[in-house]
Predict the structure.
Amino acid sequence: MTGLRVTEPRYDVIAIGNAIVDIIASCSEELIEELQLNRGGMTLLDEVRAEELYAAMPPAREISGGSAANTLAGLSTLGLQCAFIGQVANDQLGKVFAHDMRATGIDFDTPMREGEPATGRCLIFVTPDGERTMNTFLGAGQFLPAESLSEELIASSEILYLEGYLWDPEEPRKAMRRAIEVARGAGRKVAFTASESFVIERHGDDFRQMLEDGVIDILFVNEHELATLTGEDDFEVGVSLVSPKVPVLVATRSEKGAIAIAHGERAEVQAEPVDKVIDTTGAGDQFAAGFLSGYVKGEPLEQCLRRGAITAAEVISHYGPRPEADLKALITEKLG
């Protein structure tokens, strides 16, 4: 295809993802059982069930979320130029989401959608051990049409970042396939985060084919997603199967740290120490932000991983999926 090549990228990272408002509450283990929730996992809901769970939640706080949007929030905090493409409805939560994105310095111009369904929300129940149980009503986010993409915008970004969660509904999947074509035609990098094992269970053939076709430049997975993708429980076997198919593989292992393999070079880091894990929501999203913030600057692989570990540690030390500390200062302090 003809590339929309822009000599100097206007953005460091542009992301396509779910536009969701996170509603987060602390709860007891008993409530998880009582509501029959999938402890520690992510479950998709219809609007009726979302309303039921919302009514049963303890006092909560509302923070704009969505996996790729969270990653951009971290990147923007670290001084990178970012833009987001995602669908909200023209309702109160949609306005909250748009405000939060723009207030973080992220360009967000996708037109709001009129009528039903409402803006997506994720009801997150956090148990005393910091584990989060996510219950997501995707709402308007499932109806992101390909025509809402600005191909010029995508071509003007050094990295196109896509979240696996949004691969589920048909319209956004088509939009993301088109975005990949545009980015690759413009000579840009495509980064993909698998998001969750259940997404791979549903769309693993698609993801494996994209790896075979060489259209993903940077793949982010955790150890559980890697096992689902490869069918191998042994982490190192999984790594050996995937790493030859992608220029950069980043695999996180919670408290066991993370590895990255780029063009045959391997680096590993330990997890950063955290005084108390408050809420693991957004840990993977912020790890990706830290890693990419180093990657776009051409930093060594191990330093990119260190950045990821530092940003992930910051976000699990408080409620919510977005950074609260000055990440630039934190990274400078830790890395010198």
Q: What stands out?
A: The chain has a mean pLDDT of 93. The chain has twelve helices and 14 strands.
